[in-house]
Design brief:
Blueprint lengths: L3 E4 L2 E4 L2 E2 H8 L3 E5 H14 L5 E6 L6 H9 L3 E4 L2 H9 L7 E3 L6 H9 L4 E4 L2 H13 L4 E8 L21 E2 H11 L5 E8 L9 H19 L6 E3 L16 H12 L5 E4 L3 H4 L3 E13 L2 E6 L8 H5 L5 E3 L6 E7 L8 E9 L6 E4 L20 E6 L2 E6 L4 H4 L5
Parallel strand pairs: 4-20, 5-6, 5-13, 6-7, 7-8, 8-9, 9-10, 9-11, 11-12, 12-13, 15-17
Antiparallel strand pairs: 1-2, 2-3, 4-14, 14-15, 14-19, 16-19, 17-18, 20-21
């Protein structure tokens, strides 16, 4: 995490000390580095500069309006999975013409909203969805641009809960069935077939699944051309992993070399849907130690952030490094746990950590993706604030919720 480090014994995000943010904004609080995000965006553009491409940021990773607004200003497109995400993009100044719509359960209302917003294309995930999109396009007297999300049955070698490209998953369509859908859709005047799509999963740290999927996709594109179906786009999804615990995922240039090498001569515009690889290492969760509890041989560091604020450890058994906001020289084996009334409410278990004491600040690292966006009000806890750092300044980009916010929509 290049833009987080110690200076004078204090942990900084860029040039801002994190203990200052905690003092002025309170805890828990998510803190993001704008420079870290911009570096990753620039790295994707540079790596794929030799081919026509559109980087469509996966909004689900971190959907804060200020974050999305900056990505729109930097020329990114967006990958969405709901009408709410489309609303966020448009409110943040993004263009509907740079949006691709994924997900196996699009509603009639969402499809109408997307068509009226003139999105780039839908990624179709079933024959029934294709028919529904065509029917709604006819009703609106327009044409729907579509790509079929194919399922190449490739094991992405990642956690099973975030794997999406195998035959037992709800996502995508097996290649033989996808071929039949393409042949059927070309006869529908309400549909414009524009691409082919594949998304293997998330937090992929090896190149081989990508290589295998590219071989299948290449053959599939050539087969469609033999049938007279000429495409404009290849949407290769996202999923490139980051390092949480010493993993060595492919570099963006290394990943690009394989993708571009396999597809360059097809003459298609490449669509990519990175999320975690742009924002994951751009964020930390600051949390304050409320109590130290010893029970037998166990040492519990109880903090004010709970699984409602960061559910990844409980949901996936995800590993996050934890640093002290003020540099320490001693360590001790402990669990870091939160205040939620669940035994799964933990951040780390049985790990050697800085020797935290009551009142200390802990920084949970690599939470820019699927941190706040997966948070909830479980146990009637207000959701936390979000802060964006740029150089030596920071701004609150989401205020901390109040108790009144908890019941605002209830009768």
């Amino acid at each position: 995490m290049q833009f987080f480090g110690y200076a004078g014994g204090r942990l900084h995000c860029e040039d801002v000390p994190l203990d200052q943010v905690a003092r002025e904004v309170g805890t828990p609080v998510y803190v993001y580095s704008e420079a870290a995000m911009r570096q990753q965006v620039d790295a994707f553009h540079e790596a794929f500069s030799s081919v026509p491409h559109l980087i469509c940021y996966a909004v689900k990773a971190n959907s804060n309006l200020s974050v999305v607004r900056r990505f729109a200003q930097w020329g990114l497109g967006f990958e969405i999975v709901s009408g709410g995400e489309l609303f966020r993009i448009l409110r943040a100044g993004g263009e509907g013409s740079k949006v691709v719509f994924d997900g196996p359960g699009k509603t009639m209302e969402e499809i109408r909203y997307a068509l009226k917003s003139d999105i780039l294309f839908f990624n179709v995930e079933s024959a029934a969805e294709a028919d529904l999109i065509a029917d709604i396009a006819r009703e609106l007297k327009t044409r729907a641009r579509v790509s079929v999300r194919t399922n190449p049955d490739v094991d992405p070698l990642t956690h099973p809960y975030i794997s999406t490209g195998m035959k037992e998953h709800k996502f995508g369509i097996a290649l033989p069935e996808a071929r039949e859908i393409y042949l059927k859709l070309r006869a529908r005047p309400e549909i414009e077939i524009v691409g082919v799509t594949c998304h293997l999963g998330s937090q992929i740290t090896q190149l081989e699944p990508y290589r295998e999927a590219l071989r299948s996709l290449r053959a599939f594109v050539l087969d469609l051309r033999q049938e007279g179906i000429d495409l404009k786009y290849l949407d290769f999804g996202g999923g490139l992993g980051i390092s949480y615990n010493g993993e060595t995922p492919p570099s963006i240039p290394g990943y690009a070399e394989h993708v571009v090498g396999a597809m360059r001569d097809l003459g298609l515009t490449l669509i990519l849907e990175p999320g975690r690889s742009i924002v994951g290492n751009a964020g930390v969760l600051l949390t304050r130690v409320t109590f130290i509890k010893k029970q037998g041989t166990k040492r519990f560091v109880i903090v004010d952030a709970g699984m409602n604020d960061l559910i990844r450890p409980a949901l996936y058994g995800a590993h996050h490094q934890v640093w002290s906001a003020n540099e320490k020289t001693t360590t001790e084996v402990a669990d870091i746990v939160g205040p939620i009334c669940e035994s799964t409410d933990f951040i780390v278990k049985d790990r050697e950590l800085p020797t935290f004491e009551r009142g200390d600040l802990a920084a949970v690292m690599s939470v820019g993706a699927y941190g706040f966006s997966l948070s909830s009000n479980y146990n009637s806890r207000p959701r936390v604030a979000e802060v964006l750092v740029s150089g030596g300044k920071y701004e609150v980009i989401r205020r901390r919720e109040t108790y009144e916010d908890l019941i605002r929509h209830e009768l």
